[in-house]
From TrEMBL:
<feature type="compositionally biased region" description="Basic and acidic residues">
    <location>
        <begin position="57"/>
        <end position="86"/>
    </location>
</feature>
<dbReference type="Pfam" id="PF00271">
    <property type="entry name" value="Helicase_C"/>
</dbReference>
<feature type="compositionally biased region" description="Gly residues">
    <location>
        <begin position="503"/>
        <end position="586"/>
    </location>
</feature>
<dbReference type="GO" id="GO:0005524">
    <property type="term" value="F:ATP binding"/>
</dbReference>
<keyword id="KW-0698">rRNA processing</keyword>
<dbReference type="GO" id="GO:0016787">
    <property type="term" value="F:hydrolase activity"/>
</dbReference>
<feature type="compositionally biased region" description="Basic and acidic residues">
    <location>
        <begin position="8"/>
        <end position="19"/>
    </location>
</feature>
<feature type="region of interest" description="Disordered">
    <location>
        <begin position="501"/>
        <end position="586"/>
    </location>
</feature>
<keyword id="KW-0539">Nucleus</keyword>
<protein>
    <recommendedName>
        <fullName>RNA helicase</fullName>
        <ecNumber>3.6.4.13</ecNumber>
    </recommendedName>
</protein>
<dbReference type="InterPro" id="IPR011545">
    <property type="entry name" value="DEAD/DEAH_box_helicase_dom"/>
</dbReference>
<keyword id="KW-0378">Hydrolase</keyword>
<keyword id="KW-0547">Nucleotide-binding</keyword>
<dbReference type="InterPro" id="IPR014001">
    <property type="entry name" value="Helicase_ATP-bd"/>
</dbReference>
<dbReference type="InterPro" id="IPR044742">
    <property type="entry name" value="DEAD/DEAH_RhlB"/>
</dbReference>
<keyword id="KW-0067">ATP-binding</keyword>
<dbReference type="InterPro" id="IPR000629">
    <property type="entry name" value="RNA-helicase_DEAD-box_CS"/>
</dbReference>
Length: 586
């Protein structure tokens, strides 16, 4: 007859089998423990153990069911979200959602998805990593592919390079096969700076990978002989700055160009490239497609469009008012009571926080003068033992390119630059921009902070001001338009702030009324010009007047093209606008 001990052992083993079958975690009782405890265990202990294990098993089952239910709900939510994304809006709804204004003879429906057009397989790799076209791409592509001329007004970092480049590539492959040697360019792209030209070139190189399309990027600082040789061998696309293009293409035919792009037209005009632009366009057939992109829409850009574009369709993304990116948080810091060294320490502390937060973060520090760039680099090196790259016009092309490569590769994570780098740089890792001091005009401020927060990412912009900083009233307006926090001290400073150089003329854009102090007010008109001169201004020239095409009383340093001004315009008889005052002196 089996002993009591054996009976209990059998019961325990039976219980263990049942528990293994019911518990989700397969809880097991150790046989060694069972064996050692058999002599002291009672029936009540076994029963208690059984209840405890069963309770644990039920609890685990409930948790598992709850988790499964929660997971199911999450999946249902994901499906709902995907369905939401797949919903295609009507053209009107889409434009309203993205704040797009379209004007012209037709209003093609936007491409809301990459599948809205049958792009060739050879270019499908361009879309990798993107879920949908950017707003400027979505509305530009149907217009350009329809053969229309286009004016596109959009902020920097909006994806406009691909907006004009992809249709150009489609045009090239649609044409009959071209000779392998000596083909003249079909596409000409003009950009204001070598940095922007290089950026367009990089996008182009990536896009034409695996095709037979050939391109050349031409800008100052590189040998003309090598660039001429590449042109002679034959290219499909030429990208470059107007100055170098004008020198280079003078000896080469542009009679094959069918597709012309003026990128950042406002900046090119600001830099005085109008003669070179006109010279180049005069060599291009009138039967062409012309596209013009600009961040702003001043009078000069309008005149350029009316002169060289034929019945263009104009699209505006966002407000036409000058404004900063909504993806950038703007911080304004008062350094009125700080020494230069204390100010530098303050800037460095913030830079250090950003760089230590993420090893992939990079920052750009903008200075108004070349020597300030060099000084701040020296400070970082000697005081903080930190490496940085300096980019300004005093550096030769080789140094600029090697420095930018180090910055792009994150080998050196601080770039110090003048406004030569404010446009054209498109580096996703730039987490923050620092304005060592505010620039001379508010437009450059907007373009500077546009180097971060690109392609939907977020960024920060730090600016350091004193009571003597110009443009603070305009800065307050920029902050208001982007719903940024405005410090109390800034509003007080702004009341007494002088306005800086503005290319839009006296009394604001389009210029009515008197010019602003330190104005260099281009296109200003009306009464009383501001000191440092009204260019294209009328009425009462200011000190250092340089009133080109202006009228009224002359100022010291002479009113060029102004009535009664210097430059030998006795009484406004020569170059003047009539009936001027007394002769001015240089």
């Amino acid at each position: 007859m089996p002993s009591t001990s054996s009976k209990r052992k059998t019961e325990d083993e039976s219980l263990e089998v049942k528990v293994e079958q019911s518990s989700s975690k397969k809880l097991k009782m150790s046989k060694r423990d069972e064996s050692s405890d058999e002599s002291s265990s009672s029936d009540s202990e076994v029963e208690s153990k059984s209840k405890s294990i069963k309770k644990s098993s039920k609890s685990e089952e409930k948790k598992s069911e709850k988790k499964s239910s929660s997971s199911k709900e999450d999946k249902e939510e994901e499906v709902k979200e995907e369905t939401k994304e797949d919903i295609v809006l009507s053209p009107t709804e889409w434009r309203k959602k993205h704040n797009v204004l379209i004007e012209g003879k037709s209003q093609p429906n936007p491409f809301q998805k990459f599948t809205d057009y049958e792009f060739p397989r050879m270019f499908q790799h361009i879309f990798q990593g993107f879920t949908a076209p950017t707003v400027i791409q979505g509305q530009s592509w149907p217009i350009i592919l329809g053969g229309n001329d286009l004016v596109g007004l959009a902020a920097t970092g909006s994806g406009k390079t691909l907006a004009f480049l992809l249709p150009a590539l489609l045009k090239i492959i649609s044409l009959p096969k071209r000779p392998s040697y000596g083909a003249t360019p079909l596409v000409l792209v003009m950009a204001p700076t070598r940095e922007l030209a290089q950026q367009i070139e990089e996008v182009c190189k990536t896009s034409i990978r695996g095709t037979s399309i050939r391109q050349l990027c031409a800008y100052g600082g590189l040998g003309k002989i090598d660039q001429s040789r590449i042109l002679r061998n034959g290219v499909d696309i030429v990208i470059g700055t107007p100055g170098r293009l004008n020198d280079l293409l003078r000896k080469h035919h542009l009679s094959s160009v069918q597709y012309l792009v003026l990128d950042e037209a406002d900046r090119m005009l600001d830099m005085g490239f109008m003669p070179q632009i006109e010279s180049l366009i005069d060599q291009i057939p009138k039967e062409r497609q012309t596209l013009m992109f600009s961040a702003t829409w001043p009078k000069e850009v309008k005149l350029l469009a009316s002169k060289f574009l034929k019945d263009p369709i104009k699209i505006t993304v966002g407000s036409q008012e000058l404004t900063g990116s909504i993806n950038v948080t703007q911080h304004i810091v008062n350094i009125d009571d700080l020494s230069d060294l204390q100010s530098d320490d303050l800037i460095y502390d913030e830079i250090n926080k950003i760089l230590t937060a993420d090893p992939t973060n990079t920052v750009i520090v903008f200075c108004n003068e070349k020597y300030k760039c060099d000084d701040f680099q020296h400070y970082l090196s000697t005081q903080k033992n930190v490496k940085s790259i300096v980019l300004h016009s005093g550096k030769d092309q080789r140094m600029r390119e090697s420095g930018l490569k180090l910055f792009r590769d994150h080998r050196i994570r601080i770039l110090i630059a003048t406004d030569v780098a404010a446009r054209g740089l498109d580096i996703p890792s730039v987490k923050a921009v620092f304005n060592y001091r505010l620039p001379g005009n508010i437009e450059d401020y907007v373009h500077r902070i546009g180097r971060t927060g690109r392609a939907g990412k977020t960024g920060d912009a730090w600016s350091y001001v004193t009571t003597q900083t110009p443009n603070l009233r305009d800065l307050v307006k920029i902050l208001q338009r982007t719903n940024q926090k405005i410090p109390d001290f800034l509003e007080k400073f702004a009341v007494h702030s002088r306005q800086g150089i503005s290319r839009y003329g006296g009394g604001g854009r389009g210029g009515r009324g008197g010019g602003r102090s330190w104005g260099n007010n281009r296109n200003g008109g009306g009464g009383g010009g501001g000191s440092w001169g009204n260019r294209n201004g009328g009425g009462g020239g200011g000190n250092w007047g340089n009133n080109r095409n202006g009228g009224g009383g002359g100022g010291s340093w002479g009113n060029r093209n102004g009535g009664g001004g210097g430059y030998g315009n006795n009484g406004g008889s020569n170059w003047g606008s009539g009936n001027g005052g007394s002769e001015g002196s240089w």
